[in-house]
Here is the input.
Amino acid sequence: MSAQPITLIEAITQALAFELRSDESVVVLGEDVGVNGGVFRATAGLSAQFGTERILDTPLDETTIAGLTVGMASQGMKPVAEAQFDGFMYPMVDFIVCHAARMRNRTRGRLTCPMVLRVPWGGGIRAPEHHSEANESIFTNVPGLRVVMPSSPQRAYGLLLAAIRDPDPVIYMEPKRIYRQYKELVPDDGEALPLDVCYVLRDGSDVTLVTWGAQVKETLEAAEKLAAEGISAEVIDVATLTPLDFPTIAESVAKTGRCVIVHEAAKTAGFGAEIAARVAEECLFDLLAPVERVTGYDTHIPLFRLEMKYLPSVDKIIAATRRAMAYS
Here is the structure.
């Protein structure tokens, strides 16, 4: 076990080091991941420990990084690539969507693509344009991709281990706003957490709050304040967006009769819309109120003074929950 509690970013470093020690086919590549240890220090110290043949500094060229990663993965390696920021992913889309996601289907299972693309994701750090995107729904719509987003140091460690070991491509989105926000004890035991599973973080009986990534923190805080009002909120961390563990959500909605979905991305066609549609299709007769969504706005995230106004807040989550409860 770690001697001291560690942050989410330190848990990622710990998971990478464990897999690099355990599996010689694992390599890490990206811009400045080697000598400099990455823009957020996720790979700090790995180059000195494992050498420049396994921790690869690449040119400042996201298209090349994506192409190298797919090529390595198709030939038996397990590359873990880094996109420095979420907004830098777009030049990678061709290789991710047209090749990585289709490899198993294209070859009828003869080849797989065991790659991970690590992406610092989301807003809240007062960064400039292209550095604060919540673009998960672009990738949740692509068959053949897993989209994973941890919300705590423990889940960051366990889910990254699982992602690296998975035989198919994983987009691993790291909420940069909570990289260093709080610490947990994270055993460095190599125990992966299951992918494709939602985590029920708080039991409740009146309303189901569904969220992921950085918004888990605000949602748990909202649930605590709602409890003081006599409202019992169940909190679900989706964790793996696709494939979605909808049965866990459906079971909760059947118990509570209400559902509030919280996410940072713009409202229109955000992943919350998919969850809301599934709830409408499969849980209609359990619902006591319309599904509520607490989301970002249908704009690019504003710079800089309005950034936190754009993001879901505890107050917004509480207001949406009260609206759902009013239908009782």
